Amino acid sequence: MRKRPEIPEDVFFEDAEAAQEPEPEQQPKATQTRQPRSYTRREQPTPEVEPEPAVAKFPVTLYLTEPVLYRLEEARFRLLTEHGVKTSKSAIANYALSSALQDLDATADALRED
Prior knowledge:
It is extended, with a radius of gyration of 31 Å. It has a domain at 66-113. The chain has helices at residues 9-12, 66-83, 89-102, 104-113. The chain is an all-alpha fold. Helices cover 40% and strands 0% of the residues. The protein is built from 4 helices and no strands.
């Protein structure tokens, strides 16, 4: 059975002298009063930009052919390596479906060929 090493008490426990009130310049930030900061023209704070409302996402199962799956993986890899865009396969599929559904005539012609 291993013997625990002796740890001096002053490492983890405060002694009575250290537990005294902190000096005024060492008081916690909540009790210190802050002086208002004056901004120069160059340092003006930027206005907060309101985030766009989140679009609800729903789980859907899609069955892809093997060549399409490989092209999807390749597109994800190329977006990351060539363009520095880190994205998911779902985001790529969402973009592709949105694009295909905008022009239903072209999509219908392409589906007739398959």
